[in-house]
Amino acid sequence: MARTAQDVLAAAAREAGAGAGDNRLVPLIADGVAPRSVLAAFTLEQHHVIAADRVSYRHLAGRSAGATAAFFTALADGEDTALALLGPLAAACGLDDAAVRGHEPALACQAYPACTAWLALQAEPVDVVVALSVNFATWGGYCGVLGRALRARYGFSDEACGFFDFFARSPGEEGDADADALVRAAVEEGLGSGVLSERLAWRYARLLQGFEGMFWEGVGGGG
């Protein structure tokens, strides 16, 4: 029987999806015991992550065609939305434009977008689609938790939590049918053309999962 996109994505989740439960910071935020300075650090670092990933996704779109290009174009457009949504979150954290512009990013927090940039230059784009689908499920889960916690524990408004609500609808998390369809179409395309390498996709997913963990450690003051 021919291998399907669902087979590929399920295997990637099994092989490279570990580590989501290792995050020590998100449970602290969920319980309301993390200091507000952590929320500010998250917001400042995300300005750099989102801006960098947007460039990487546009480059990947330019290296792709068909469904794979559509996937990365949608991601890049989504980063435009995410940057706008960071404004209300920054304001809720007491950050003004000068604070955002003057922030010096932490090394640990910026390893993730550095990896994304490397993948944009070096990797087969459809392999990156598979890897990102694994990581986005993790990231979307964290954002769902934070969106609820910031409302219940920290008194943030719905507007301030819009950034988290947006990413909680990422592929694999809140049943975003359009996003899931883009992923499946790109993977089916990669299977049909023979360019998809599951071994490399798993490797890239493990790297992204690891750098995701580093980001949260950095936000919490660990690097």
Describe the structure.
Helices cover 73% and strands 0% of the residues. The protein has 223 residues and is mainly α. The protein starts with a helix and ends with a helix. Residues 170-175 have low confidence and may be disordered.
Topology diagram in text:
Elements (H helix, E strand, L loop, with lengths): L4 H12 L8 H6 L5 H27 L3 H27 L4 H6 L8 H12 L2 H28 L9 H6 L9 H17 L4 H22 L4
Helix pairs in contact: 1-7, 1-9, 1-10, 3-4, 3-6, 4-9, 6-10, 7-9, 7-10
Query: Oligomerization state of this entry?
Result: single chain
Label the structural class: mainly alpha
Low-confidence stretches are: 170-175
Quote the beta fraction.
Answer: under 5%
Helix content: over 70%
Structure, briefly:
The protein is mainly alpha-helical. The protein contains ten helices and no strands. Residues 170-175 have low confidence and may be disordered.
Features:
mainly alpha, globular, 223 residues
